[in-house]
Amino acid sequence: MFGFGKNKKSHTNVAIVDCQTGVIQESKKFPITLGGDDSTIKTNIPTPFLEISKNKNGEFELTPLNPEDNVKINGVRISAPIKFSDAVTMQIGERLFYIITDPQVLERARNMDTSKWLVFYSETGRIEDEVPFERLKQSVLGRGLNGAGIAFCPKNFDIGFMFSAVFSDADKNDEASSIIPLLSENAEAVTCPLCWLKFDIGDAMSIAVHETLRSDPILGPTEMLRFLPTSFNEDGVPIDPAGMPAPDVACPHCRKKLPPNYLEIDRKIFSIVGAPSAGKSYYLSALIRQLQNTLYKDFDIVLKDLDPTGNMLLTQMKNSLFSAKRPEDAILAKTALEGLMYERYPRFGKMVALPKPLTYSLTKNEELKTSLIFYDNAGEHFEPGLDIEESPGAMHVASSAGIFFLIDPAANRNFKKAIGEHPDPQLNIVGRLDQQDTILSEMEIRIKRILAIEPSKKIDTPLAILIGKCDIWQNLLPEKLKNPIVDKKLDLNAIDYNSAILQKFLAEIDPSIVASALSISTNLRFFAVSALGHSPQMLTEGHCAGKIAPIPEKINPMEVEIPVIWALSHCSDLIPTIKS
Predict the structure, then answer these.
(1) Is 372:431 a contact under the CB 8 Å cutoff?
(2) Cα 505–508–514 angle (5° rounding)?
(3) pLDDT at 142 (0 to 100)
């Protein structure tokens, strides 16, 4: 766990660590003066600014020599002598240092790597990013954060500087004297769709092609070498160390191959969340098919497979569902916590299971506009108690341009009671735990924790609550829902009208779900959807006996694509809308 200096017993030596250079200087002669040509320990600061001494009780003291120097100890400006022990952070102007008296802390400091800095949350110690020193500030600001609760330290060390303390004065100054410069005007921060860490496009790695370069020091002997390109051919394609063109690109953090053209186009992450066995795989399979049809028919937008290899499993599920001849052929496997939809990636020195991104492109008027990235997440990833550091598979929700929470009425006791007698076999499953409101609350906690948002505040990301299996309950609605697409435009008035009816309807059945949703986002809508459009059947014969399966000739998805089109209208200009 990271710390910020503690007060214990005093020791003999004092060491000053220059965080920019990693140089460590020690002294046991007191008083020790920092700054100026005659200083005991050299800091390259022209005038004396701090004295380190020992009082009669053997305690270390720090005394600022010039109040105008703005010396900060552990992020707080000092104007009078203070006592300290073990280790503290020090900032003077644009320079960062550690003052260390504990031999054990000093030994750890000798192993620090100042070429890489960890960005982490001070309360939990959870690491958010690993970047070069000069990109620390952009790493935080690029996430839309104000730095509250964020700290940073050199890699292989565990005492941090508070971001807000270091940058507070610099941010108020318009001069270019910030301790850490921003990225250049042409630089762009990119979120990796695999590990969800940010990086500058210029830091993207290339993947070697020549067979002699098979073996990456991080990924192992089965993967081709990742390298930072230094030479290019006449088409601008990087050349690998063996002289071969190497067009494929990898994330510098997890080193995994990025989807084709990922760096060249705008990117939107859409997260689908729900309890275990809520039907997310069926929804996602139906969604891609219906989205392709509706976007082209109503909005002249072509949705295409941007990464056929990475999307292969979803393509297989979609084909199984819509090409099945028999019910047993249309059964989709549950997304396991580390199943086929997951892959293990290196993340901050650990191999962790993360869901594979499902990437599609959107083209309008023959111009490639943006890419959509979906995740089929195991519901268990959102269960309370799961360590998101060890298994960070649900962290994409914090980077999403749209969040879709799928509710399964067949798992909700109140919903089943409202539906009453109905032949759908999904309503008769015994022993299934209904934890949908708990998972929705857990999702809120995780999003706000990752984004360092106060619990009382809301995000503005579009949040769609999808009330699934609407084919078995829509007759309970007091009013008929309106068509949301009119004259090749998305009718936002109809979206709002339908949402109000569904919100009131759901609040009467299970108010805890509505209350939780209202506390998450300021941009919330409710939708009625059905991935199958009919009640499946219970199989009684064959190897699938006892399983529930769709009836192929009855599959007719209902409104599954509308929530995504609504979210897309908020994060792009692709969808024309009607709003009175």
Answers:
(1) no
(2) 80
(3) 60
What is residue 198's three-state secondary structure? Answer: strand
Dist CA 132 CA 31 (whole Å): 35
* Sign of CA pseudo-dihedral 97, 100, 104, 107: positive
- Beta strands in 141-282, from DSSP E residues, in sequence order: 150-155, 161-162, 189-191, 198-200, 205-207, 214-216, 220-224, 226-227, 249-250, 266-274
Peptide bond into 511 cis (omega under 30): no
- Residues 189, 144: Cα–Cα separation, whole Å: 12
pLDDT, mean of each 10-residue run, the chain (580 residues): 48 85 89 85 87 87 85 89 90 90 90 88 74 79 68 89 76 32 46 80 90 88 91 91 94 87 86 86 94 97 90 89 92 62 71 83 89 79 61 71 94 92 87 81 83 85 96 95 96 98 96 94 97 94 88 96 97 92
User: Which amino acid is residue 91, in one-letter code?
Assistant: Q
- Per-residue confidence (pLDDT) for residue 519, from 0 to 100: 95
Distance CA 348, CA 69 (A): 37
Eight-class DSSP state of 211: G
pTM: 0.71
Residue 337's pLDDT is what?
45
Contact between residue 565 and residue 301 where contact means Cβ atoms under 8 Å apart: no
Furthest C-alpha separation in the chain = 91
| C-beta pairs of 313-318 under 8 Å, 24+ apart in sequence | 313/340, 313/341, 313/356, 314/284, 314/285, 314/288, 314/341, 314/358, 314/374, 314/376, 317/281, 317/284, 317/285, 318/285, 318/286, 318/288, 318/289
Give the separation between CA 177 and CA 400, rounded to whole angstroms: 34
